[in-house]
Design a protein that fits this description.
Elements lengths: L9 H42 L10 H4 L6 H14 L23 H6 L8 H26 L3 H12 L2 H9 L3 H13 L6 H8 L7 H5 L5 H21 L1 H12 L12 H12 L8 H22 L5 H15 L8 H13 L8 H12 L4 H4 L16 H28 L5 H9 L3
Helix pairs in contact: 1-6, 5-6, 5-8, 6-16, 6-17, 8-9, 8-16, 9-11, 11-12, 13-19, 14-15, 15-16, 15-19, 16-17, 16-19, 17-19
């Protein structure tokens, strides 16, 4: 090692420069080959989803084998948009003579308004167009993260996991909107200047409103929270005031529906419910619904307070903690929802405000979430007429199905909370002043 004041010889400089140049040439082809392979796999799977009624991912998921599809969720919006155009209640599910099959429509009325242009296309063409939109969103996210994650190996693992994410492919197959909502929110964080992406995210899936405390506490993003909240009210409140019976349907389907802990549910509450049943334990002697409601309110409120009081300047850490708090306490976390959690993990990796020691568990969590679950091995019959194949599975199989997904979600939340806590806390006056003072 050179001592202070000692000059590096020209020969040493040339040697070090040659090593750096050689390493760059060696890394570049490998990087290009790896990226090319991942892109080929990604495009092959997407084409299979679009072109085949039973694509290559069909055996991998409960919601491909045992549910209506493909595009069952997308067609619910397609049907609602057609009915709304014809002056019919979008929540009625009335047959339109065009949509082949569908699930009940449970989104905000603004979604049926925004999706009107899709009704000018045949159903499958409209679904493929939506898939193209999701692919564009994924490409924008991948390019943005590639530029922001410095270490090459970390960058390749992060981008690779997003490109071949099993929950993302399921999202495409179902024609879902969860990935789009969180991807739009992430792009709003990456490009905060005059970016309406968060407002669109909230209209697609209002659960992203959980991020409001984190956005409101930061000077660069507080406008996103204000405009998104105002947009939801402006586009929903007058409609529901004019049609209060439709508000009842919307509220019932989203907030009072009975949870289903079948093989397609990968939520933490399902895991806790299984433990409670198998150990014959009723927490605090309270009914399960009351216990779950209390847990959800406590965790979300506690996380919001932590975000508000924390001195951490990273809006990503706050947003990730709040959205993971939502997923950890939401009863119905279906496998396609994990496509959004993969995006949150990638955003944590991109966030440079945490210590480097947390990168390894973040990468492991992302990879576990992106990999297919053991469902294909456990569901030997692949009988679409069976609603819940896990009902006949032995105990260890039911736990092995959900643990590889529940554990990473919990770990990601713990890392986000640790990051917020290690930064220290504002005094109460300063913490709340950040939310109310003029920017």
């Amino acid at each position: 090692m050179l001592q202070q004041g000692e000059e590096r010889s020209p020969r040493t400089s040339r040697f070090q420069g040659a090593k750096v140049l050689l390493r760059s040439f060696r890394d570049a082809p490998g990087r290009h080959i790896c990226l090319g392979f991942l892109l080929v796999v990604h495009l092959a799977v997407v084409l299979s989803i679009v072109l085949q009624p039973r694509p290559v991912i069909w055996p991998l998921h409960n919601d491909t084998v045992h549910r209506t599809g493909p595009a069952g969720d997308f067609y619910s919006v397609y049907n609602a948009a057609i009915n709304l155009r014809r002056g019919i209640d979008p929540y009625s599910g009335s047959p339109d003579g065009i949509t082949p099959y569908k699930y009940p429509f449970r989104y905000l009325p603004a979604v049926a308004v925004v999706f009107q242009p899709f009704t000018l296309l045949p159903p499958k063409v409209a679904w493929v167009t939506w898939i193209l939109g999701l692919e564009i969103l994924l490409a924008a996210l991948v390019v943005s993260l590639w530029r922001r994650i410095p270490p090459l190996r970390t960058r390749l693992v992060t981008v690779g996991a997003l490109l071949v994410s099993s929950p993302y492919f399921l999202e495409l197959y179902m024609g879902q909107f969860t990935f789009a909502a969180v991807a739009l929110l992430s792009l709003a964080l990456l490009y905060p200047a005059r970016n309406p992406a968060y407002g669109v995210s909230v209209l697609l899936k209002p659960f992203t409103l959980a991020a409001v405390p984190a956005l409101a506490a930061q000077p660069r993003t507080w406008r996103h929270a204000v405009w998104a909240f105002a947009g939801v009210l402006a586009m929903s409140l007058p409609y529901f005031m004019a049609f209060p019976e439709q508000w009842t349907v919307f509220y019932t389907s989203n907030f009072t529906a009975t949870s289903s802990f079948d093989a397609g549910n990968f939520g933490t509450l399902k895991f806790l419910s299984m433990l409670s049943d198998d150990l014959h334990v009723q927490p605090l002697g309270l009914p399960w619904t009351i216990w779950v409601t209390g847990l959800r309110m406590t965790l979300l409120a506690g996380t919001a307070l932590l975000v508000i009081y924390s001195r951490c300047d990273s809006v990503v850490a706050g947003v990730v903690a709040l959205l993971l708090g939502h997923f950890l306490t939401f009863p119905d976390v279906w496998e396609h929802h994990l496509s959004a959690v993969c995006v949150l993990a990638a955003m944590q990796i991109e966030d440079r405000s945490h210590r480097g020691l947390t990168i390894a568990p973040l990468l492991v969590s992302l990879v576990l979430l992106a990999l297919p679950s053991p469902f294909a091995q456990f569901d030997a019959e692949k009988d679409p007429s069976i609603w819940d194949p896990s009902a006949s599975w032995p105990l260890h199989m039911r736990y092995l199905l959900v643990l590889p997904k529940v554990a990473p979600c919990v770990l990601l939340y713990v890392i986000a909370v640790r990051q917020l806590s290690r930064a220290g806390f504002h005094p109460s006056k300063d913490a709340w002043r950040r939310l109310v003072v003029s920017r």
